[in-house]
Amino acid sequence: MRTRLLSPRTAILLRAFAAVPLTAALLTGAGTPARASGAPDGTSGSALTKSVQDITHPGAAAVDHGDTVNWAIGYRNAADSPAGAPAAITDTISGAGTAQTYVPGSLRTPPGWTPSWSTDGSTFSATDPGSSAVAVRAENPSARPGGTDLGAPLLAPVRPTAQSTGGDGFTPVLHRTALGEVESWNIYHHAGAAARKVVCSSLTTGQPCTGGPWPRPLNSTPGPLGSGDTGDISSPLTPQYVQDPDRDGVVYYPGVSAGAVGVGCLDLAARANCGFVALEASGTSPSSANNLAGLVAVGGNLYGVASTGQVLCLAMASRTPCPGQPYAAIVPPNHDLPGNPGGLYQGALTVADGKVFASSAPLTSGSSAAGPPALGCFDPASGSVCPGWDTPHPAGPGAAYNTYNAYTAYDTAGRADGVCTTTVGGANLATVCYTVAGAPLTPPGSLAGINGGAYTFNPETVTSEGTTRSYFPVWNGGIAGATVCHDWTHAAPCAGFPLPAAHPGVNGGATRDYGYSYDATTRCLIGLGDAGVLFSSTPRPAPRPVCTAGPPSRSARPPSTATAPPVMCRRTPRRAWTTSTSPTSTWRPRT
Known about the structure:
- With 591 residues, this protein is mostly beta strands.
- Helices cover 0% and strands 35% of the residues.
């Protein structure tokens, strides 16, 4: 039978995963750990733990030939000294090639541990040899006492240092590597075409990602990320990113080339550009597609809105323009005057009930026809304006008002029932909402008391424990950076959060928030702003939740009682799942 790695949800253990086939003679019951004896050399009370799970026939009394099972190995280093020491865990595949066969690519190790493979049982290589492997190994140059109890959490408290991004980033894009490292990517917004603008920061190590130096330029030609100011794609003011659901690590971003607006492609794992697709030519008259807002995804397609107000569309699977696009305008043009290629789109996009909504602020300067902010709706099913939205709906009192957002409204049951935008101007922030059908909708009141000069951007919305909350980035108007949390389920500001909630412990409070990304695995909200500082949000609901490296172990709070999102990450004690060791696995300190 064949075996493979445990799924990422068990990443709380420091472990090596062996993909080894198992016979019924070796396993009498699913989930029964292999018998073991002895303790690791040089450690008092230290131990290995090894468990197995039949994933082909979960719960079966015996394992059948051809079944795939998961082996997990954890260690507990109970040495008295708090200092770390080099260590290695080796697991020999019993009956390799006959009774058991390693599943290629299935070995996984946690952050800080390096995997290796052997085809002869003695010589180990960093290259996975596939089914010919007879042993696997994981090594750590500084394994600390406590073993899995002190495993580095997936997100240790995020280090609030400017070197994390080095520039004017926008919303973080979170990505897990094949080895379990958590990376935060961002693209500097409103940056010129040639400028270096894409940055990767490791949330696991608190250091720049491998593959630097960062930042690097973005280019329309596929290939490895370059260096220096050699890019040819500029970035918009309020970019929104979409991760391809069918291509792990591929992210689509809105961009502007020398002659068009469109969609750029970034392969995070490969550290590479994967192309640019032009969707509307620039330089037309009397209205020019100088810039764009977006992106959002519906039904396998990406959507954006050009500064002409027209809807843009790209099919993700084929990476080709949708038939008939660009579609008719759904909002008034803004910053669309010809000869103004640097004009930035004022507004954003969101999705509700399968429809695409956009905001637009046709400011007096740079727009072919000045007017108040407006909201519009596009129906992907018909490829046209939504019913009830034949004309854009007003969203502000005049052309002096601006907006940087468009966000989904929810009813108390957590159902998306409309769209809102919050405008800058007046004594306090003003929010206008409409139902999906286009009727007026009561706006959320959590932003109503904020100074009218504050900038508000698209929120990160999280549903947990039956409660739907939106976390709004806010700054300016006397606010150096803060989060406003609205509870849609209770139609009120979030309980336990200050209003607004500043971040005094990060960069002296000067975060100038632009966007957040919520990581469901760790239950952490990660923020980024104009200050170029990557941080975890500081509001503290009670009881204070924790950040874990996956679903909590038995020593951590279970998901059903955790409050989401946690706002500061901390280390949580973890315990191994089993107490036996395997005679085919060895642990030794390295000297």
